[in-house]
Design a protein that fits this description.
30% helix; alpha+beta
């Protein structure tokens, strides 16, 4: 009798564990489906969302956007003319592909406050025409620099230990 009770308890535990594993794996797909429906209803366009871990991909009518959280890695597909931004730690990367061109956004943290002039020099060395704005305070320096070279546009905005680098490549 005690053996049957233990076997029954083990079987119930296994069934509950299996169901919770199935439901948790479905939960991710359900959240993707809900997000798809919300976007489709607001835009009127068919959307496909795929997510896994800290990565999300959204595709719709020839357009694709990828969000990569905590990647820590410079995008391998970044145009070679764009100087690597090596100040601080890469927190997230976003890529977008559209019929008009491609874009990348690299968000960094732990960025020192005086890199605008240095990165502007790297852009100029790579053949970019640049415009910069530098903001200084008692504690730090921040600002922005924009560069253009043929069909490439690069903009970096820094301040308070963070930086956002945006690259747009037109066709």
């Amino acid at each position: 009798m005690l053996v049957q009770s233990n076997i029954r308890s083990i079987a119930i535990f296994i069934a509950i564990f299996s169901m919770s594993a199935i439901l948790s794996s479905c939960q991710k797909k359900i959240s993707d489906m809900v997000a798809e429906k919300v976007i489709e209803q607001s835009t009127g366009k068919k959307v496909d969302i795929k997510s896994g871990g800290q990565n999300i991909t959204i595709e719709s009518e020839g357009k694709k956007i990828e969000f990569q959280g905590n990647s820590g890695v410079w995008p391998a597909d970044m145009p070679a003319d764009v100087p690597k931004f090596s100040y601080g730690k890469i927190k997230a990367v976003t890529r977008a592909q559209m019929p008009e061109g491609q874009s990348w956004t690299v968000v960094c943290e732990s960025v020192p406050g005086n890199i605008v002039k240095d990165y502007e020099g790297k852009l100029k060395s790579s053949g970019f025409k640049t415009v910069s704005t530098i903001l200084t305070s008692d504690n730090t320096e921040g600002g922005s620099v924009s560069g253009t070279k043929e069909k490439l546009n690069v903009t970096i905005i820094t301040g308070n230990g963070t930086a956002s680098l945006s690259v747009v490549k037109g066709h």
